[in-house]
Specification:
With about 210 residues, this protein is of the alpha/beta class. It has seven helices and six strands.
C-alpha cells in the first residue's frame, strides 16, 4: 500500500507519524490550493500557549489556483518572525542548537513557490530523522486515487481534535506551564528529542 498525501509547512507530529507508516509516499502536486490547512502554516508551543506561524502568500489565501502555482510573499519579513519565535520557544530544548543553523538557512533561501518550500522542508525533516522512505510526486489530480493508494490528503487540519490513543507523547519545553500539547509542528518533537524522535513515531502503534 502507498500513501497519497498533501504537503505541509513543517507538518504536524501526526502527519509525520502517518508518513512513517508507509514505505512509499506520493505527494499531491496538482490539487487546488485550499485555505485553512497546514500547507502554509504550523503551530508551535510557547510559554503562554500555542503560537501559529503562517507563510504569507501573493494574492492572498482565498485564491483558487493550483497549489503548485502558489507564490510566497516576502513583502513582510515573516522569516525573521518565524526564526525569532523558534528561538523564543526552543532555546531550552535539548537538540535545538543542533538543528537551528541548518534550518534557518533553508528558510533564508527564499523559495518562490510554496510547494517548493514545503517539499524542501519535508525532505530535510526526513533526512534528519533518517527516514528510509521512497518519495514520488503526482503527475495529475485524481479525485479518487488508485486502489494501491491510501488517501491521506487533508487528513490533518488546524483545530482538529486528536484522539488520545493517536497522540505521540513526549516531554515538551513548556509542559509544566501549559500542559502537554498534542500534534504540534514536527519541529517540537525534533527539537525536544533529536534522534529519538524517529523511534517515538514508529513505536506509536495506532493506525489512522
Amino acid at each position: 500500500m502507498k500513501l497519497l498525501i498533501d504537503y505541509q509547512y513543517f507538518g504536524t507530529v501526526n502527519y509525520y507519524k502517518m508518513l512513517f507508516m508507509f514505505k512509499y509516499i506520493e505527494f499531491e502536486e496538482y490539487e487546488r490550493y485550499q485555505k485553512g490547512s497546514f500547507r502554509n502554516r504550523t503551530i508551535i508551543a510557547g510559554a503562554n500557549g500555542l503560537i501559529p506561524l503562517s507563510v504569507p502568500l501573493q494574492n492572498g489565501r482565498d485564491q483558487r489556483a493550483l497549489f503548485r502555482d502558489i507564490k510566497i510573499s516576502y513583502k513582510d519579513n515573516w522569516i525573521l518572525q518565524h526564526t525569532r519565535a523558534l528561538d523564543a520557544c526552543y532555546m531550552r530544548a535539548p537538540f535545538y542548537e543542533f538543528y537551528r543553523d541548518n534550518l534557518f538557512a533553508l528558510l533564508a533561501s527564499q523559495e518562490e513557490y510554496l510547494m517548493d518550500l514545503d517539499r524542501k522542508l519535508i525532505q530535510w525533516v526526513l533526512k534528519m530523522m533518517k527516514a528510509n522512505l521512497t518519495m514520488t510526486f503526482s503527475t495529475s489530480y485524481q479525485k479518487e486515487p488508485a486502489t494501491e493508494f491510501q488517501d491521506g490528503r487533508n487528513r490533518f487540519l488546524p483545530n482538529q481534535a486528536i484522539a488520545v490513543e493517536d497522540q505521540v507523547n513526549y516531554g515538551q519545553v513548556f509542559e509544566d506551564r501549559i500542559g502537554f500539547q498534542p500534534n504540534m509542528s514536527i519541529l517540537d518533537l525534533l527539537f525536544c528529542n533529536g534522534p529519538v524522535a524517529t523511534g517515538l513515531l514508529k513505536d506509536s502503534s495506532s493506525r489512522f
